[in-house]
Amino acid sequence: MGFLKGKKGLIVGVANNKSIAYGIAQSCFNQGATLAFTYLNESLEKRVRPIAQELNSPYVYELDVSKEEHFKSLYNSVKKDLGSLDFIVHSVAFAPKEALEGSLLETSKSAFNTAMEISVYSLIELTNTLKPLLNNGASVLTLSYLGSTKYMAHYNVMGLAKAALE
Length: 166
Prior knowledge:
The protein is an alpha/beta fold.
C-alpha cells in the first residue's frame, strides 16, 4: 500500500476527473487512504459518485457550503460512517460571473461577499464543524493560485479570495 494506509480523508470540491481535487484524491487512494467525497448539487453528484466508486469509496455526501445545515449533516454522516478523519482537502472556489469581468473596482458588495463566503469562509466553517472528528496530527489542506499574488486577467475578486486563504 503506502504511507496513507489506515488514514481517512474527506475530499471537498471534486468537480470532475480533470480537477486538481481528483488528482489529490487519486494520489491519496494510491497511498492507501480511505476517502469520502462531497458534492454541491444533483448535477455534480452525477460526476462525483463515479469518481468515488473508482476510488473504492461508498461515502458521498451533499455539501452546499452556503448552507449551514449541510455542515451539520456532513458532521453526522462522517461521524457515523468513518468515526474520525486524518485529513481534509478543501478545493472549493466560486465567484459570480460579474465579479470576474471588468475591473475589480466594479465588483458589487454582494458578489464580493459571495466569493469570500464560498471560497474562504467555507474552509473555516468546514474545519470548525469537523474539528471534533480530527485525529491528533490531522491535516487540513486548501488550494490557492498564483492569482493571489500576481495580476491575472479576469481573476479579479478570486485573487483576493485566494490571498485571504493564504
